[in-house]
Amino acid sequence: MTNLGGYEERDVVVQLTDVRKDFGDYAALDGVCLEIGAGESVAVMGPSGSGKSTLLNMVSGLDRPSAGSVVVGGEDLGKLDEKGLALFRRRRIGMIFQFFNLLDDLPALDNIALSGQLVGMKASAARKRALELMGELSIADRKNIYPSSLSGGERQRVATARALMNRPSLLLADEPTGALDSRSGEQVTHLLMDLNRLGQTLLIVTHDPRLAAQCARRVVEVADGRIARDRSVNGDAVTEVAR
Asked: What is the pLDDT of residues 144-153, one digit of tens each?
């Protein structure tokens, strides 16, 4: 099966090898190895300060490792300069944030279409693609509405459409339900589940065990900058790493 990013299910989308990230004398990540295949849905969990947000920043190219290698979608991020990393994020990575990060002065359609235009898509083609995504996510009737007038669930759907605009090989979600009420949170959870069923590779950082259980095939538990456990959601151990 080919996933939404155009990869075969057997392909490796994320490969972290002995990744370390130091902030002064503090190691936020300490020798992390992680592999995610195309079509997988992986949740990263752990207490505050465990390193899970730093791990997400490594995968997205928002930060560079102090040691080790990060390969995403076949790109060795260590070989890219800052401009190359920015283009990589726009073209290959979709990102969903806890607080949506929408532009308040643009209506929903333009918030979505802009991400396509930033990688060189013509405005007409970008709007067409954005409208298609809004239809698929059941928010087409909100195309001319500004973010301040959208519900939390609608804003997250707009953010998801924006993240999918350039057909990313990997969709990253950072606490995607953290700012939502329970009903909107359930809607976003089901949306992520549907995307994964269609073959979209997901990497989700969350504190919510219910979201992880519903959306992920694997749960990676991070503690003190290391992967403490990598398990399937039914509780069977895939990998056990001593702390």
From this structure: 999 999 998 8
